[in-house]
Amino acid sequence: MNSILHANHICLHNHSTTQSEVFQKIAEMAVANNIATSIEEVIKGLENREKESTTGFMDGFAIPHTKSKAIKKPGIVIISLANGVEWNSLDGLPTKFVISLLIPEDEGGTTHLTLLSSVSRMLMHNDIRQNLLQAKDEDSILHELNQVI
């Protein structure tokens, strides 16, 4: 986990108001942190995955993810939202916390599934969800995620 998630991969209290704006921010952070080479390709991948079915989880969480040739190394980008964003989530609630998984195309069947499974299992625990939603800084989020993934 330590190699794919760093404090500079986390954006707290982001003011995006739409899913498209969140995808733009994820892609910008991915390129800025040398996870990916193309903002446009990351956005396109996230949008295409979302068309298959919602990545909105429950209780204000979403796990958008994509595989792409533009992604150079596995990475996780986390965005907490100042206000909820409509995400077509399973429970109908707005999304307030986004954990985006970015995977190189050639690691789609291994890294992708392992990370997605770990994050999904983690979010089944109410105490973890609450700790993430109430985190005051990047280090608190890193601590919580490193304990469970």
CATH class: Alpha Beta
What is the percent of helical residues?
Answer: 25-40%
Main beta sheet: strand number and arrangement? 5 strands, mixed
The secondary structure category is: alpha/beta
State the end-to-end CA separation: 7 Å
Average predicted confidence as pLDDT: 91
Features:
149 residues, 5 helices, 5-stranded mixed beta sheet, Mannitol-specific EII, Chain A, alpha/beta, 5 strands
Q: Care to describe what's here?
A:
The structure is a single chain. The protein is α/β, with parallel strands linked by helices. The protein has a single domain, classed as Mannitol-specific EII, Chain A (3-Layer(aba) Sandwich), CATH 3.40.930.10. The chain contains 5 helices and 5 strands, in the order βααββββααα. Strands 1, 2, 3, 4 and 5 form a 5-stranded mixed β-sheet that branches.
